[in-house]
Amino acid sequence: MLRSSIFLFGVFNIIAAARVTHILANNSNFGVHRGDPADVGDYPYEVIFEFPTEPKITCTGAIVSDHHIVTTAQCTKFVAKLDGLARVGSNTKGNGGFEHKIDKVWFHEKWNDNLTNNIAIIKVFEPFQLDKIPKVITPLDQNEEIKSGTNGTISGWGFSESGIGQQFCKINVVTIDGDNCKRIWGAEFVEKVSLCTESYKEEENVLCAGNFGDTLVFGNGKDRHLAGLLSWLPSQHQPDEPVRTYTNIAMYHNWINKVIQY
Question: Is the dihedral of CA 113, 153, 174, 192 positive or negative?
Answer without folding.
Answer: positive
